[in-house]
Amino acid sequence: MPAASATDSRALAAFTEADRKLVELARGIRVLTPLSWPADVQEPFLAAWRRGERRMPEVVYGHESQRERIAALEQLASSLDVSHPMGRFLADTTRSYITVCWLLEHAGTPEMTEFSIELYGRPGDSLAGGRVNNVDAAQHFLEVSALYKREWGLEPLDYCIPANIVKDELGKRIAKVFDRHRIEITIDPHLVSKAAAGATRIRLRDATSFSEYDIEQLLQHEAFIHSLTAINGREQPHIKSLGLSAPRTTGTQEGLATFAELITGAIDIGRLERIALRIVAIEKALAGADFMEVFEFFLAAGQEDSESFNSAMRVFRGAPLSGGSAFTKDTVYLHGLMEVHTFFRWCLQHERLELCRYLLAGRMAIDDVIRLEPCFRSGLLSPPMYLPPWMGRTNALSGYLAFSVFANRIRIAELHEGYTFDRLSDLGV
């Protein structure tokens, strides 16, 4: 059915014009780039640390006024008809950019924390269903990791693959999926994380060695989710803002990307441990721990000093180093994973697996895809141009979800009667 049959031409014109304005206003708004620390901060800090000196890093943030941009975004948001799901999506997305602008206005001050929490949440936020929260999830994975280490020891990964080899390998495998688009892979000496992805480019950190696990994680996480959803959003016929890296979609995006690692076997307990440690570190910072204390927390958890610095830096991007404040984005990886996993299971139980596909048609939150379902049916929105290989095999996804739904009904705490050591000894074991 053509879009105009469900949305009259005047409303469609209004939405597409608002969408055009949003894309234009959002151009140039970056969250991580203005908050990233200069590359030359790390070495003096670590050199002092290795000499036994506990010296705080020195970081200064540039401040470009966001007031004109905030005013234009406010005007756009207030003009939208939020009674229509598309108007609601555009208004919510616009307002999330307003929050980013306010965060940037307050970079380096304690006030930035409230805007970070509005965008990304905080440790202790409840997961879907409300019985547990993201700190519970983090503690669970840390306990499992500790148990595994005691029983088996974590197998050391062989970090011996240079960035240029990773670049070539990713390029070959990405080209098999994105047959109508080219994604450039570059090596960036200033990148803080190991990789970052957009619609047309994936950046890899220079002077870093990667493992085989890293390659698979980067492929599934960065290319087949972040790049893929950005391309699919840009290819929408009417609403191009679905291709934006809107901050309000970060939780679902990172949740999808981490779920992709999970379902393809590209995630290991060590990565889950690192994700969980970040949530605990943010909780400590919000409770008053300063940069040095958070750095030492990561050291005590077994990270090398350079990795501990990078981990602590992620917590304090844009925040005062004295404690009580934090950049809370790293809560979304584990929180988003649990939310996406729960949503996919819900879709299976309610025979709505098409929503899982729609979630990949652009960058959106879980609430968006539920509200926007009529827009997909009407033709205002199009299904995704590309799907990650694991989503293309819906029978495999359904099998995984079906097993997960039923296995969740088994209570581990109730297995003691059949899993006693006494019984094993009776059997001569």
Number of strands: 5
Number of helices: 20
Rg result: 23 Å
How big a fraction of the residues is strand? under 5%
Please state how the strands of the largest beta sheet are arranged side by side: 2-4-3
Q: How would you spell out the order of helices and strands?
A: HHHHHHHEHEEEEHHHHHHHHHHHH
Short description, anyone?
This protein is mainly alpha-helical. The chain has a domain at 118-413. Helices cover 56% and strands 4% of the residues.
Fold topology:
Blueprint lengths: L8 H18 L5 H4 L6 H9 L16 H12 L6 H21 L6 H9 L13 H18 L9 E2 H13 L8 E5 L6 E3 L3 E5 L3 E2 L1 H23 L15 H14 L5 H18 L4 H10 L4 H12 L15 H18 L4 H5 L7 H6 L1 H6 L10 H4 L1 H14 L13 H6 L3
Parallel strand pairs: 2-4
Antiparallel strand pairs: 1-5, 3-4
Report on the structure:
This protein has a domain at 118-413. The strands form two sheets. A three-stranded mixed β-sheet has the order 2-4-3, with helices on one face. Strands 1-5 form a two-stranded antiparallel ribbon. With 429 residues, the protein is mostly helical. Helix 4 (67-78) runs antiparallel to helix 5, helix 5 packs antiparallel against helix 6 and helix 12 crosses helix 13 (305-316). It is built from 20 helices and five strands. Mean pLDDT is 90; it is low at 1-7. It is globular, with a radius of gyration of 23 Å.
